[in-house]
Amino acid sequence: MDFNHTEDRQMLADTLNRYLADRYPIERRNDAAFGPIGYSAGTWSDLAELGVIGALFDEASGGFGGQGFDLMVVFEALGRALVVEPFLGTLMAGRVLAGAGGRQDLLARVIAGEVLIAFAHEDARDADGLASVLTATPGDAGWSLTGAKGVVLHAGAADLLVVPAVLPGAAEPSLFLVPADAAGLTVRGYSLVDGGRAAEVGFDRVSVGPDALIAREGAALIAGATAAGLLALSAEALGAMETARAATVDYLQTRVQFGAPIGRFQALQHRMATVLLEIEQARSAVINAAAALEGPALARDRAASAAKYTVGRTGALVAEEAIQLHGGIGMTWELPLPHFAKRLIMIDQQLGDEDHHLARYARLGQGPVEGPGPDRP
């Protein structure tokens, strides 16, 4: 199998890496990540102009990519620079819109960076872990939505929310497009520990028109968007792991103790060799998930869970080794390394942690699941 990227993908990767190396130092990233909206609108506009958002979608949707390896190229570069701009939510919400069809004008504006969409797919939970399922009831003027969604990335800055909601008597959720300023909709935002912002979104009899319903029984669309999101997070983790490993190797080659760089000590060389091998194994899992993204749903979901499980386990190892080998300065805010370590740990918590995906992989190996299940929202 040829693992080299096509010429177009390599050009995209080179352009994106060059832009981020020149214009996205850790200081600028942290200013944006911990700022009022959790990202830089200027950087988002620049990346849209470079065509990075367009690489997330196929030609039929107005983009020029959209396949698994396009997502891998983009998100690996984003992870390498710890980019906090809202690519994940745009990818998942955009793929739902593209799959539902009929929203070409909106997708064109999303790809141009003119409209920001968020994917509000997780039901909010109370202190006892009970979910507040979002329901949609028909009315004379459209639909009325009631319930709550939790940990919606960049909801506070979004113009539109793509939201799954359950219709009366339906076996699986339908999908709605809701303006972020709709009456009855509340957004309680907060900063995330690794940068960026999310929000709890409440729906108190939010009235939307009949055209807000973009797809009935949209479980397949949600599953497709989730698979793309899992691949994106796995590729992002791969990029972050590479940066953390390179920074640690550089430190071991410059930190002198007992008259010699500590990187000459065999015990430390063995630890870094283990890190390198684990990262390469994770890369294989991400490549497998990228190749399976356009394939049958069962194989796609198994490959996505295998990749997410692998990067979750490997990401923790890389973060822990990088921090320990840097010693005390490994926890210093001014150093880029701890921010990469935090991001690696938090990636494991998004869209299901390694335990969840190990169990999901085993369950999917038993064959197709009839009807909604724990991993089929």
Overall pLDDT confidence? 93
Q: Write down how many β-strands occur, each being a DSSP E stretch of 2 or more residues.
A: 12
Order of helices and strands: HHHHHHEEEEEEEEEEHEEHHHH
- Percent of residues in β-strands: 15-25%
Q: Give the overall form.
A: globular
Helix content: 40-55%
Spatial order of the strands forming the largest sheet: 1-6-7-10
The DSSP helix count reads 11
Measured distance between first and last alpha carbons = 35 Å
Q: Specify the structural class.
A: alpha+beta
Low-confidence region ranges: 370-377
Radius of gyration: 21 Å
Q: How would you sum up the major sheet?
A: 4 strands, mixed
List the main descriptive attributes of the protein structure presented here.
377 residues, alpha+beta, four-stranded mixed β-sheet, four-stranded antiparallel β-sheet, 11 helices, 12 strands, 16% strand, globular, disordered C terminus
